Amino acid sequence: MSTELLAAARQGWSRAFTHRAEPVEVWGKFSLAKPLVIVRQFPVSVQCDPARVDGLRIAHVSDMHFRRWNRVVQAAQDALLSIDYDLIAVTGDFGTLHRSWEKSTAIARRFFEPLAKRTTILGALGNHDVPDLASAPDLPITFLLNESKVCHVGGVDVRIVGLDQSIPESEDLALAFDYGADDLPTVLLAHYPSTAYRLDRHRVDLQLSGHTHGGQIRLPGLGCIWPNDAIPRDKARGLHVIGDTQAHVSAGIGVSPPIFCRYNCPAEITVLSLTGVAADPPRKTSVSTKKTKESVISI
Q1: Which domains, and CATH codes, for the chain?
Q2: pTM reported for the whole predicted model
């Protein structure tokens, strides 16, 4: 263990540390360095007329696990207020403990209210959420619970499908995709990344998921130790291809038990810019962050 980390432990888990950039960082109840939040930007090709989708930017936010308003939450809100996008998609886990969901909802309301003045916010529920959250008063999020919505944003039409994955029995793929055939670009909000393996005949151009926290603990040279879902460790964060679907897995913003910190895995927001292509994009291997045009902004 490094000298700085030992010193951090001695001085208490709740202390906020220097903003110096370090190659390996720890986030959570203590932080060795900046950034508190990073903003990733990915281009995503979808099969459709380029004129129908080019330029659409979706800000993907996930796994906030709101327990209190802290520096990471503030940095995430500041980031979302300062970057450009056309739509915010939230893929679940607004809180941590079911018994404190009302407190988490109050923080979510404070977090998303100023953002809702800029654009539409769509959301789906995760396993740490209670169904009542979707109907909480004054929460400026349109929840898609096994349903879809056609959104006209950024000058284009896109179909957003959302799943209710608050409990295993709540998900209904057949109901969510029961809207008849169309050729609109389709984006799926599903908390679990492994949903991509179960889509079968359902056409999805881009799936947005969370749940893994990117591993939350990532060891240099090894990466994610445990993805906490039925997916390979190397798909615990980033943009990948699974079958005929491109899936973006967010490392999320918050932390959850049993480890209330992040190691080498900062909180993140991702902006995905959609581009239409006339032919099938290559979909045989995962899209590595090393091979994809990706820019990272530190906040």
Answers
A1: 35-298 (3.60.21)
A2: 0.84
